[in-house]
Design brief:
Layout: E1 7-12, H1 19-29, E2 33-38, H2 56-61, E3 64-65, H3 78-94, E4 98-103, H4 106-114, H5 124-137, H6 139-149, H7 151-155, H8 162-175, H9 179-184, H10 191-194, E5 196-202, H11 207-221, H12 224-237, H13 251-258, H14 267-287, E6 293-295, H15 300-313
Parallel strand pairs: 1-4, 1-5, 2-3, 2-4, 5-6
Length: about 325
């Protein structure tokens, strides 16, 4: 490469928007690309069905770093992701290749782009109080507290994600600053300071089209295979419902079925609703994303052509 600032490509989009297909198509056209997954569930080796993980055949032909990266006997944190991704970016550049970051975990992308903060450590006493409040009054009560403390943070956190709600309240109350202010303070350097960022997004012009894709895919993701996977996970790891992977969409609802808390006939409906809400939050992130070049669901070829122009400008292809 002839660049002083080496490139990194982002490809972000809501669930079921076709990110994996686009990434594979780009890799077929531009040999220098190497894919790094930006997904908080595919990172776990045992989460295959409910995460819509690419097949083994696809992963063999088109390796995705940070897919099947760790087992469920550990928790892969945001900080773990940041450290792993930065090491991979450096390694890929050393081999004169280009990192293509692909996924839908918007918080991961945001931390990659803006840097990671030196956030306050966990407060066991406060955490215990918040967990007791959930036990006594339900998660909705704690989410309402977060909404009052920091409405913007609440908009970007699932109302049933107890781990993230607790952590957000912990950070806000211990520092007296909003979550965004905390994330912006004392951060590692922004990615653009060191690299040239090329940022693409798949953004549906018509939400109904995305909903059609979500519903069609959901029929494959939830069913007996998902339930079997969750039973096996429980048998091997004796995993808690509080593990981040088990709080992810599809796994949360599937675990409720396995534990007898949700009727199996409601699994599709509940997981479909949660997935649509998740996609809505992903799109909200994307609307506020600076320098994002967006394309509609069907514009894969146009996006590839734009990427080629960008790489040409950087004298790479």
């Amino acid at each position: 490469m002839k660049l002083h600032k080496k490139p990194i490509i982002f490809l972000l989009g809501p669930t079921a928007s076709g990110k994996t297909d686009w990434a594979i198509n780009w890799q077929n056209q531009f040999e220098a690309l190497e894919i790094i997954s930006v997904d908080s569930v595919m990172v776990y080796k045992e989460c295959n069905v409910g995460s819509a993980k690419p097949t083994d055949a696809i992963l063999k032909k088109h390796p995705h770093y940070l897919v099947n990266h760790v087992s469920l006997d550990c928790i892969f944190s945001v900080a773990d992701f940041y450290d792993s991704a930065m090491r991979l970016i450096d390694d890929i550049h050393r081999r004169d290749k280009i990192p293509l970051m692909v996924g839908g975990s918007m918080m991961y992308f945001n931390i990659l782009k803006k840097g990671i903060s030196n956030l306050p450590s966990a407060d066991p006493k406060l955490r215990n109080e918040l967990e007791q409040k959930i036990f006594a009054n339900g998660i909705d009560s704690l989410y309402a507290d977060l909404s009052r403390l920091d409405p913007k943070a609440a908009e970007n956190i699932d109302s049933h994600d107890s781990q993230r709600i607790i952590r957000a309240i912990e950070i806000i109350t211990s520092t007296g600053m909003s979550l965004n202010e905390n994330l912006s303070s004392e951060q590692t350097g922004e990615l653009k300071e060191k690299y040239t960022l090329i940022e693409f997004g798949i953004f549906p012009d018509e939400r109904a089209k995305l909903h059609e894709r979500i519903e069609s895919r959901q029929e494959v993701l939830v069913g007996d295979k998902l339930l079997e996977e969750i039973v096996n996970i429980k048998n091997i790891f004796n995993i808690s419902a509080e593990h981040p992977a088990m709080k992810a969409i599809n796994y949360r609802q599937g675990l409720q079925v396995v534990e007898g808390k949700l009727d199996k006939s409601k699994l599709f409906e509940k997981s479909l609703f949660a997935t649509r809400q998740f996609a809505k939050r992903q799109c909200t992130w994307m609307r506020g994303w600076e320098n994002l070049i967006c394309f509609d669901l069907h514009q894969a070829e146009e996006a590839a052509e734009q990427l080629k122009k960008q790489l040409n400008l950087l004298e790479i292809v």
